[in-house]
Design a protein that fits this description.
Length: about 220
Amino acid sequence: MKLFLRISLFCFIVLLAGSKATAQQTPNVYRDSVVQLYGVVMTADSLRAIPSASIIVEGKGRGTITNPDGVFSIAVLKGDRITFSCVGFKNRSIEIPLNLSENQYSVIQLLVSDTAYLPATILKPRPTREQFERDFVNNKVSDDAYEIARKNTDEAQRRILINSLPADGREAINYQLRQQANKYYYSGQLPPMNILNPAAWADFIKAWKRGDFKRKD
Protein backbone atom coordinates (compact mmCIF):
# COMPACT_ATOMS: atom_id res chain seq x y z
CA MET A 1 0.00 0.00 0.00
CA LYS A 2 2.81 2.36 0.88
CA LEU A 3 4.58 1.48 -2.37
CA PHE A 4 1.43 2.34 -4.35
CA LEU A 5 1.14 5.71 -2.60
CA ARG A 6 4.77 6.53 -3.31
CA ILE A 7 4.40 5.66 -6.99
CA SER A 8 1.20 7.77 -7.27
CA LEU A 9 2.90 10.74 -5.58
CA PHE A 10 5.91 10.44 -7.88
CA CYS A 11 3.69 10.38 -10.99
CA PHE A 12 1.75 13.42 -9.76
CA ILE A 13 4.96 15.41 -9.23
CA VAL A 14 6.22 14.49 -12.71
CA LEU A 15 2.94 15.55 -14.36
CA LEU A 16 2.89 18.83 -12.41
CA ALA A 17 6.45 19.66 -13.46
CA GLY A 18 5.64 18.86 -17.09
CA SER A 19 2.58 21.11 -17.09
CA LYS A 20 4.60 23.99 -15.64
CA ALA A 21 7.27 23.55 -18.28
CA THR A 22 4.63 23.57 -21.02
CA ALA A 23 3.00 26.69 -19.58
CA GLN A 24 6.37 28.44 -19.51
CA GLN A 25 7.21 27.45 -23.08
CA THR A 26 3.82 28.34 -24.61
CA PRO A 27 4.30 32.15 -24.56
CA ASN A 28 7.72 31.75 -26.17
CA VAL A 29 6.34 29.48 -28.89
CA TYR A 30 3.48 31.88 -29.58
CA ARG A 31 5.86 34.82 -29.58
CA ASP A 32 8.26 33.12 -31.98
CA SER A 33 5.41 32.21 -34.37
CA VAL A 34 4.46 35.85 -35.04
CA VAL A 35 5.82 37.08 -38.37
CA GLN A 36 5.84 40.60 -39.80
CA LEU A 37 4.75 40.16 -43.41
CA TYR A 38 5.55 43.08 -45.70
CA GLY A 39 6.10 43.68 -49.37
CA VAL A 40 4.60 45.21 -52.49
CA VAL A 41 1.77 44.21 -54.82
CA MET A 42 2.34 44.88 -58.52
CA THR A 43 0.86 44.04 -61.91
CA ALA A 44 2.40 41.02 -63.62
CA ASP A 45 2.54 42.55 -67.10
CA SER A 46 3.81 46.10 -66.48
CA LEU A 47 5.17 45.89 -62.90
CA ARG A 48 3.05 48.83 -61.79
CA ALA A 49 2.04 49.25 -58.16
CA ILE A 50 -1.55 48.30 -57.32
CA PRO A 51 -3.06 50.65 -54.72
CA SER A 52 -5.90 49.62 -52.37
CA ALA A 53 -5.32 45.90 -52.96
CA SER A 54 -6.70 43.68 -50.18
CA ILE A 55 -4.47 41.38 -48.14
CA ILE A 56 -6.64 38.98 -46.11
CA VAL A 57 -5.58 36.35 -43.56
CA GLU A 58 -7.88 33.42 -44.37
CA GLY A 59 -10.01 32.19 -41.50
CA LYS A 60 -8.86 34.95 -39.13
CA GLY A 61 -11.03 37.90 -40.19
CA ARG A 62 -8.01 40.21 -40.35
CA GLY A 63 -6.36 42.04 -43.19
CA THR A 64 -5.02 45.26 -44.61
CA ILE A 65 -4.75 47.17 -47.89
CA THR A 66 -1.85 48.52 -49.89
CA ASN A 67 -0.95 52.20 -49.91
CA PRO A 68 -0.82 54.28 -53.14
CA ASP A 69 2.62 52.78 -53.88
CA GLY A 70 1.38 49.20 -53.48
CA VAL A 71 3.28 48.64 -50.22
CA PHE A 72 1.72 46.77 -47.27
CA SER A 73 2.67 45.40 -43.86
CA ILE A 74 0.73 43.10 -41.52
CA ALA A 75 1.45 40.82 -38.55
CA VAL A 76 0.64 37.15 -39.24
CA LEU A 77 1.46 33.73 -37.79
CA LYS A 78 3.55 30.95 -39.25
CA GLY A 79 1.36 28.66 -41.31
CA ASP A 80 -1.25 31.34 -42.09
CA ARG A 81 -2.63 31.49 -45.62
CA ILE A 82 -2.67 34.99 -47.13
CA THR A 83 -4.90 35.98 -50.07
CA PHE A 84 -4.16 38.97 -52.31
CA SER A 85 -7.14 40.39 -54.23
CA CYS A 86 -8.10 43.49 -56.16
CA VAL A 87 -10.86 44.44 -58.57
CA GLY A 88 -9.81 43.59 -62.12
CA PHE A 89 -7.17 41.03 -61.09
CA LYS A 90 -7.16 37.33 -60.26
CA ASN A 91 -6.75 36.34 -56.62
CA ARG A 92 -3.43 34.89 -55.48
CA SER A 93 -2.68 33.08 -52.23
CA ILE A 94 0.53 32.28 -50.36
CA GLU A 95 1.30 30.38 -47.17
CA ILE A 96 3.72 31.55 -44.51
CA PRO A 97 6.36 28.80 -44.04
CA LEU A 98 6.32 26.95 -40.73
CA ASN A 99 10.10 26.51 -40.72
CA LEU A 100 10.81 30.23 -41.09
CA SER A 101 13.90 31.05 -39.04
CA GLU A 102 13.23 34.79 -38.73
CA ASN A 103 10.24 36.85 -37.65
CA GLN A 104 10.08 38.82 -40.92
CA TYR A 105 8.91 37.69 -44.34
CA SER A 106 8.93 39.86 -47.46
CA VAL A 107 7.12 39.18 -50.73
CA ILE A 108 6.70 40.82 -54.12
CA GLN A 109 3.27 39.66 -55.19
CA LEU A 110 2.35 39.92 -58.88
CA LEU A 111 -1.33 39.91 -59.85
CA VAL A 112 -2.55 38.93 -63.31
CA SER A 113 -5.30 40.96 -64.96
CA ASP A 114 -8.69 39.27 -64.96
CA THR A 115 -10.73 39.87 -68.13
CA ALA A 116 -14.51 39.91 -67.73
CA TYR A 117 -16.45 39.15 -70.91
CA LEU A 118 -19.82 40.87 -71.17
CA PRO A 119 -22.64 39.77 -73.45
CA ALA A 120 -22.72 41.35 -76.88
CA THR A 121 -24.80 44.51 -77.35
CA ILE A 122 -26.29 45.29 -80.76
CA LEU A 123 -27.09 48.93 -81.54
CA LYS A 124 -29.69 49.53 -84.20
CA PRO A 125 -30.68 52.93 -85.62
CA ARG A 126 -34.28 54.04 -86.03
CA PRO A 127 -35.73 53.18 -89.47
CA THR A 128 -36.87 56.73 -90.21
CA ARG A 129 -36.34 60.23 -88.88
CA GLU A 130 -40.04 60.57 -88.10
CA GLN A 131 -39.97 57.49 -85.86
CA PHE A 132 -36.89 58.81 -84.06
CA GLU A 133 -38.57 62.17 -83.42
CA ARG A 134 -41.73 60.43 -82.17
CA ASP A 135 -39.80 58.18 -79.77
CA PHE A 136 -37.66 61.08 -78.57
CA VAL A 137 -40.67 63.27 -77.76
CA ASN A 138 -42.56 60.43 -76.03
CA ASN A 139 -39.56 59.30 -73.99
CA LYS A 140 -40.23 59.61 -70.25
CA VAL A 141 -37.66 61.72 -68.43
CA SER A 142 -37.09 61.09 -64.73
CA ASP A 143 -38.26 63.81 -62.35
CA ASP A 144 -35.67 66.14 -60.96
CA ALA A 145 -35.40 67.12 -57.29
CA TYR A 146 -37.70 70.14 -57.72
CA GLU A 147 -40.45 68.09 -59.35
CA ILE A 148 -40.19 65.40 -56.67
CA ALA A 149 -40.48 68.04 -53.93
CA ARG A 150 -43.49 69.61 -55.66
CA LYS A 151 -45.27 66.24 -55.81
CA ASN A 152 -44.52 65.50 -52.17
CA THR A 153 -46.02 68.82 -51.03
CA ASP A 154 -49.15 68.51 -53.17
CA GLU A 155 -52.31 68.54 -51.02
CA ALA A 156 -53.97 65.64 -52.85
CA GLN A 157 -50.81 63.56 -52.57
CA ARG A 158 -50.59 64.30 -48.84
CA ARG A 159 -54.20 63.21 -48.33
CA ILE A 160 -53.49 59.95 -50.15
CA LEU A 161 -50.46 59.34 -47.95
CA ILE A 162 -52.40 60.10 -44.77
CA ASN A 163 -55.18 57.67 -45.72
CA SER A 164 -52.88 54.90 -46.94
CA LEU A 165 -50.00 54.98 -44.46
CA PRO A 166 -50.56 53.65 -40.93
CA ALA A 167 -49.85 55.85 -37.93
CA ASP A 168 -46.40 55.46 -36.41
CA GLY A 169 -45.59 55.21 -32.73
CA ARG A 170 -45.25 58.95 -32.23
CA GLU A 171 -48.62 59.74 -33.78
CA ALA A 172 -50.31 56.95 -31.81
CA ILE A 173 -48.95 58.12 -28.44
CA ASN A 174 -49.82 61.77 -29.23
CA TYR A 175 -53.39 60.77 -30.05
CA GLN A 176 -53.63 58.78 -26.82
CA LEU A 177 -52.28 61.71 -24.78
CA ARG A 178 -54.78 64.09 -26.38
CA GLN A 179 -57.62 61.70 -25.57
CA GLN A 180 -56.51 61.46 -21.95
CA ALA A 181 -56.11 65.25 -21.64
CA ASN A 182 -59.61 65.78 -23.06
CA LYS A 183 -61.03 63.20 -20.63
CA TYR A 184 -59.33 64.80 -17.61
CA TYR A 185 -60.38 68.31 -18.73
CA TYR A 186 -64.09 67.42 -18.69
CA SER A 187 -63.86 65.14 -15.63
CA GLY A 188 -67.04 65.39 -13.53
CA GLN A 189 -69.11 67.13 -16.23
CA LEU A 190 -70.69 66.39 -19.58
CA PRO A 191 -68.36 66.96 -22.55
CA PRO A 192 -69.60 69.52 -25.14
CA MET A 193 -71.42 68.27 -28.23
CA ASN A 194 -69.85 69.33 -31.52
CA ILE A 195 -73.22 69.23 -33.27
CA LEU A 196 -73.69 72.85 -32.20
CA ASN A 197 -70.06 73.90 -32.82
CA PRO A 198 -69.70 76.15 -35.92
CA ALA A 199 -65.99 75.34 -36.26
CA ALA A 200 -66.74 71.60 -36.31
CA TRP A 201 -69.40 72.14 -39.00
CA ALA A 202 -66.91 74.16 -41.07
CA ASP A 203 -64.35 71.34 -40.88
CA PHE A 204 -67.05 68.81 -41.83
CA ILE A 205 -68.07 70.82 -44.90
CA LYS A 206 -64.44 71.18 -46.05
CA ALA A 207 -63.87 67.44 -45.64
CA TRP A 208 -67.08 66.68 -47.55
CA LYS A 209 -66.00 68.94 -50.44
CA ARG A 210 -62.61 67.27 -50.56
CA GLY A 211 -64.26 63.88 -50.87
CA ASP A 212 -62.94 62.42 -47.63
CA PHE A 213 -66.21 60.51 -47.09
CA LYS A 214 -66.33 58.88 -50.51
CA ARG A 215 -66.30 55.11 -50.62
CA LYS A 216 -62.87 53.73 -51.42
CA ASP A 217 -63.02 50.68 -53.68
